[in-house]
From TrEMBL:
Source organism of the structure: Platanthera zijinensis
Superkingdom, taxonomy of origin: Eukaryota
Protein name: O-fucosyltransferase family protein
InterPro entries the UniProt entry points to: FucosylTrfase_pln (IPR024709), GDP-Fuc_O-FucTrfase (IPR019378)
Alphabetized UniProt keyword annotations: Carbohydrate metabolism, Fucose metabolism, Glycosyltransferase, Membrane, Transferase, Transmembrane, Transmembrane helix
Protein family membership: Belongs to the glycosyltransferase GT106 family.
TM ranges: 6-25
Pfam families with a match to the protein in the record: O-FucT
Xref: PANTHER family: O-FUCOSYLTRANSFERASE FAMILY PROTEIN (PTHR31288), PROTEIN MANNAN SYNTHESIS-RELATED 1 (PTHR31288:SF5)
GO molecular function: glycosyltransferase activity
Protein's GO biological process: fucose metabolic process
């Protein structure tokens, strides 16, 4: 390996770091922790199907991808040409891990009400930070996938521009009862809603199936409709490609993604206990020790979701020299756009998709990011999601070992 990207970028990093630092400290990540995901209990994953071609993968913490699960929902019947009953608008907020859930809720509600959905915009954490859907996601694919299931328009129709929608607060994953009781009456009388999803306690466990049509709509929205736009997909591709090649000789092109960001770990809420004594966060040292315990040797390539290096992460690089962050991996011509202040949403999008594509995933924070990355991984057969609270030697997340994740109600 001739060139160390860390050295090339050292100067750039020093200057930009101070600029970024002030910005990051201000940022409020509290909502990140609203999640309560239930304690993993001591059940071992029964057995992992092994594909014959990848013998070395069977050793240690590297498991082959499970056989891809089959989609066990059928596409909701197309309603064809319909008379729309009214309009629903909403915004995507708080990063891509939330976007997935917000999209699923809006689609389910629009399907139930026979409403027309206005393509959402994307709001950043800071007031006034606004992007178009297309700035992050593939709008054509989104509209194509949901065509006939719900009616979608790219923009608010002119006759609605001067109207004021009724704002409805919706708990994440609303039940059919909730929609019928609390949302439908307002919709019928006003015909134009603006949804504001909130997360009282995030529950990604599957629940009793009641309405196959709405469940299928949720599966389609959650796992089939949202894709990054081409530009961001390309940068994710560049990053994973570099992770697989930087250290190919001793890592066989595999890497572990760890969701660990120092600005999150510094939050007070990290010291609190989750339900049943479960911890919310693990620090850099604990994660490094966990990786060792799980069997990753010192040559393992590791991706941290950190943007700029922080000295508290040195403990990981001492044990795992091939540890990289975004600053090491984003192509030089894209750094301006993806690393400048105010681009936290884009950075989280990169993290979210790199973490869904790695050979193994280890969360240091047990929030919705963990839950929705796990869901995407389950849907695509990449079930190596390892957590310190699960039993050795596999340390497999109970989302996978107990199939408790709602992704298993979409993929069987
Ligand atoms: C990033 O990926 C794109 C598409 O695969 C490729 O054309 C481009 O050369 C890559 N850029 C770098 C710097 O590797
Ligand atoms: C790491 O890789 C080097 C070079 O390929 C090898 O000599 C060494 O034994 C490896 N160390 C471990 C812990 O696997």
């Amino acid at each position: 390996m001739a060139v160390d990207p860390r050295q090339i970028l050292a100067a750039f990093l020093t200057i930009s770091m101070f600029a970024m630092l002030g910005n990051m400290i201000k940022r409020d990540h509290f909502d990140y922790f609203l999640t309560t995901i239930q304690v993993q209990s001591a059940v071992r994953f029964e057995e992992i199907k092994i594909s014959a071609t990848s013998a070395p993968l069977n050793k240690g913490p590297w498991k082959p991808e499970n056989q891809q699960l089959k989609q066990c929902w059928t596409r909701p019947l197309s309603k064809g040409r319909w008379q729309s009953n009214g309009l629903i608008s909403f915004s995507l907020t708080n990063g891509p891990d939330r976007h997935v859930s917000q999209i699923a809720d809006a689609v389910v509600i629009a399907r139930y009400l026979g409403a027309t959905l206005v393509l959402p915009d994307i709001r950043g954490r800071e007031p006034g930070q606004k992007r178009n859907f297309q700035d992050m996601y593939d709008a054509e694919k989104f509209m194509r996938t949901l065509d006939g299931v719900i009616n979608i328009v790219k923009e608010l129709p002119p006759e609605a521009v001067s109207r004021t929608p009724a704002v409805v607060r919706v708990p994440n994953r609303p039940t059919e009862d909730f929609i019928a009781k609390n949302i439908e009456p307002i919709f019928r009388s006003i015909g134009y809603l603006r949804l504001a999803t909130y997360f009282p306690s995030i529950n990604l466990k599957s629940r009793e199936k009641k309405n196959a049509d709405l469940d299928s709509s949720a599966c389609l929205a959650m796992f089939g409709s949202l894709e990054l736009n081409l530009e961001i997909q390309e940068v994710v591709g560049n990053m994973t490609e570099r992770l697989r090649t930087l250290n190919r000789k001793s890592s066989d092109g595999r890497f572990v993604a760890v969701d660990l960001r120092t600005d999150v770990l510094e939050k007070k809420v990290c010291n609190q206990k989750g339900i049943e004594g479960r911890r919310f966060c693990y620090n850099a040292r604990e994660i490094a020790e966990f990786l060792k315990k799980a069997g990753f040797d010192g040559n393992t390539t590791i991706y941290l979701t950190q943007t700029w290096w922080h000295e508290s992460l040195n403990v990981i690089r001492e044990m795992y020299p091939y540890t990289y962050i975004k600053d090491d991996l984003i192509p030089a011509n894209k750094k301006g756009e993806f690393l400048k202040p105010g681009s936290a949403e884009l950075q989280r999008a990169l993290d979210f998709y790199v973490c869904t594509q790695s050979d193994a995933f280890v969360p240091a924070v047990f929030g919705l990011f963990y839950g929705n990355v796990a869901g995407k991984r389950i849907a695509s057969g990449r079930t190596q999601v390892l957590v310190p609270t699960s039993p050795p030697p596999d340390f497999l997340s109970s989302f996978v070992s107990k199939k408790s994740h709602l992704a298993y109600s979409c993929y069987c």
